[in-house]
Amino acid sequence: MAQKPLYEAQAKKLIDEQWGKMPGKPIIQYVSVIPHAPLPTPPSFILPHGGRCPVGGKYVAKVDELFGKRGKLGYVKIAKDFAEAKAWIQKLRRKEVKIGERRGVLNHFLIEPFIEHKKEYYVSCVGERETDVIFFSVAGGIDIEEQGDSVQRIKVPLDQEPDLKSIPKELRDTVLGLFTLFRKLDLGFLEINPLVFEDGKSYLLDAVVRVDTAAAFREQRTWGTWEIPDGFGNAPVEEELTIRDLDAKTGSSLKFVLLNPHGRIWTMVAGGGASIIYADAITNQVDAKELANYGEWSGNPSTDEMEEYTKNILKLMTSPLPGPPPRGEGKKWKALIIGGGIANFTDIAKTFAGVIKALRIYAKKLKNVHIFVRRAGPNDKKGLTMLQQACDEMGIPCVTYGAQRPMTEVVGIAIKDLNIKKRNS
């Protein structure tokens, strides 16, 4: 199961559209401001349920990106009128910010009518191995983490409905409806904070939802066909998108995720299991920031496919990066580890022929790259010899090993060669 978060606007849309005829439906009022679209004006401020937001009064404007603590970080604004909300968004729109270790651009926002309220509640639903769990607190809001004693933990066996007697009567239908959607829509996590109740009505003011992407095939009529966003600061680069397209068109597997373009250790690993072992071996020995990427290729890709796959990785390895390198590293050596176990049917010579073609294209830009290879399987001697001879001809430092070397031993050799500081040393 892979859980991926939705934008708050997507989460609210999903809850609003899928509630159906269940009692206790909360009022959900918002308009989403998406990239490149003009900001809405009050006369056309249409709400998802078909009503209109009152033109007068206060508004809440907030950033709708995939990171938490927005209120504490200053990304929620209570505006005195719509003009102030609009100006606040306009000031932040397309601005690059740093959240933790990630940098990203603020492109998504929400505008909602401000709901005066005296009390805030917290509700969330999660799934565990043998039970679902509802968390509820009468002390919701931005400080919920500090309200541990107030949070109820209501276990719900997988074949039963929840007992909500401990929850305020006026909110039971709403909480039951949220839990029903949690189960019905294959959600990995659902959180409403805050949920408020004023003048006999419940209002859903903030929502966090993560979907189980493994269930997308059976959620085709709900969220299964939606574009599920990557995390904040995780927008794929052009080369990642190209490899995704290549992977979609082949019967083989070609995967690549850029982790840190400043990382000095790059990998091209054959096999999903081997790719995890190599990533683990690297990050166990050096700071995880040194690992530039994660990826794997398998299923006997063709020479042409391997050429395209390798070209995109080499393009990223050799591309100039914006800004100065971290810690003043300058042009230090990088390592490209081409690894894998002993292949069952993948032709080593055929796949390495594609790697060699890509290396020839980028040879002049690889003068500070050292290649470390450990591979075995059909035609391995021929493939390793081809690769070694090609690198020697192009003046690219390269060492090649077959099955005589333990699979991840080249990791230690590469780290020593690059003189990267090891952990706890």
Describe this structure in words.
The protein is an alpha+beta fold. The chain has 3 domains: 27-113, Dna Ligase, domain 1 (2-Layer Sandwich), CATH 3.30.1490.20; 121-218, D-amino Acid Aminotransferase, Chain A, domain 1; 238-320 and 329-418, Rossmann fold, CATH 3.40.50.261. The chain has helices at 8-18, 70-73, 82-92, 169-184, 238-248, 272-285, 303-318, 348-362, 380-394, 409-418; strands at residues 3-5, 31-33, 59-63, 76-79, 96-99, 102-105, 109-113, 121-127, 131-137, 152-157, 187-198, 201-204, 207-212, 253-258, 265-270, 293-298, 334-340, 369-374, 398-401. The strands form 5 sheets. Strands 1, 8, 9, 10, 11, 12 and 13 form a 7-stranded antiparallel sheet that branches. The longest helix has 16 residues, at 169-184. The protein is elongated.
The assigned structural class equals alpha+beta
CATH architecture classification name of the largest domain: 3-Layer(aba) Sandwich
First CA to last CA: what distance? 37 Å
Q: Which range best describes the helical content: under 10%, 10-25%, 25-40%, 40-55%, 55-70% or over 70%? A: 25-40%
What order do the SSEs take from the amino end to the carboxyl end, as H and E?
A: EHEEHEHEEEEEEHEEEHEEHEHEHEHEH
- Please count the beta strands (DSSP E, at least 2 residues each): 19
Number of helices: 10
Mean pLDDT figure? 89
Q: Strand count, sense and closure of the main sheet?
A: 7 strands, antiparallel
* Overall morphology: elongated
Q: Could you name the ranges where pLDDT drops below 50 across 5 or more consecutive residues?
A: 326-330
How many domain units?
Answer: 3
CATH superfamily of the largest domain: Succinyl-CoA synthetase domains
Round the Cα radius of gyration to an integer and report it: 26 Å
For this structure, the CATH topology of the largest domain is Rossmann fold
- The CATH class of the largest domain, by name, is Alpha Beta
Strand fraction equals 15-25%
